[in-house]
Amino acid sequence: MARLGENRYGKARVRVMKVVRHATHHAMKEWDVLVLLHGDFDSCFTTGDNSKILPTDTMKNTVYYLARESKSETLEHFAIELAEYIIANNPQVLKVSTEVAEKNWKQVIVDGASHATTYQLAGPELHTTQVTLERGSKPEIHSGIDGLVILKTTKSAFTGYIKDKLTTLPESTDRIFGTRATATWKYSEPPADYAASREAAIATLLKVFAEHDSLSVQHTLFDIGKAMLAAVPQMESVTLAMPNLHCLLVDLNRFGQDNPNQIFVPTDEPHGYIEATIER
Ligand SMILES: O=c1[nH]c(=O)c2[nH]c(=O)[nH]c2[nH]1
Predict the structure, then answer these.
(1) What domains appear along the chain, each with residue ranges and CATH number?
(2) pLDDT-derived band at 274, boundaries 50, 70, 90
(3) Which end of the chain is more exposed for a tag (fewer CB within 10 A), N or C?
(4) How far is the CA of 197 from the centre of ligand 1 (A)?
(5) Which whole number is the average pLDDT over 256-271?
(6) What is the ipTM of this complex?
(7) Is 11 annotated in the active site?
(8) To which H or E segment does residue 274 belong?
(9) Residue 143 backbone class (left: φ over 0; alpha: ψ -120 to 50; beta: rest)
C-alpha cells in the first residue's frame, strides 16, 4: 500500500521591493522570497482535508505585510523574522524554511557621486540566505552568493590528468579560468553583522580566485573555501560550486597566423562542474 512520505508546501518566487524614503536618499531592496512549511499536513494530501492548510496565498501576503512592518536591514534578519512569524502564528507548523535572494542594485554614479534615488544592477549575482526554524529550536542560518561571474586570464593550469584512448584535451599551463560561482555558508552562531560577514566572505573569494596559482578548478575551490573559513570566524562550513566555463583556444594555423594565447571562443555548454563543501 502506498503511504505519504516527507512533504512540504509553500510559496515560491514572492517578489517584493522595499523603498525606505529617507530625507536625503532612498534605500531600495529587491527580494525574491520562498516560504516552505513542514508540519501536520497528511490529511490534506490523503483525504483532501484543508483544515490545517494555511493557503500559500496568505504566505505571499505575509511577506508583503512583514516587509512593511519590518525594520530588518539584512536579508538574513528578514528571513529569520518571517520564519518566526509563521511559527508563532501557526500551531500546525513544525518547521519552516525561508529563503531570500537579493538583487545587486547599487546607486548610479552621476558626476562622480552616488545618486540618491537612482539604481543600476551591478551584476547578475544574487545575495542569498536560507533559514530553517524548527518549533522550539534556534534558527539554522545559511548565507551565500549565487551566480558570481568571474574570469582570470592567467595563473590557471590543468596538466597531469588521466590520458586514455578518448582523451582529446591538450594539457595547459596557462589557460583562461572562467566560472559562475555559487557559495553557501552555514553559520555556527550569528555574526555581529551579517552584511559585513558577507562582504568579507565575497572579498576573500575574489582575492583568492585572483591570486591563486591554480592547478585545477578543484584546487582553487578548496583554497577559496579554506580562506573564507579563516575570514569569517562564525562560518562553520562553506559549499562552493564552480562550473568551468571553458574558453577554447582558436586554431589560427589555418589562416597562417599564430595564436599565442590571445584568441578564444568563450563557451558555457557543456561545462565542467566542480562542487565541494569545506568544513572546519
Ligand atoms: O580544472 C579542471 N578540472 C577538471 O576536472 C577538468 N576536466 C577537464 O576536462 N578540464 C578540467 N579542468
Answers:
(1) 9-135 (3.10.270.10), 148-279 (3.10.270.10)
(2) very high
(3) N
(4) 31
(5) 97
(6) 0.99
(7) yes
(8) strand 272-279
(9) beta
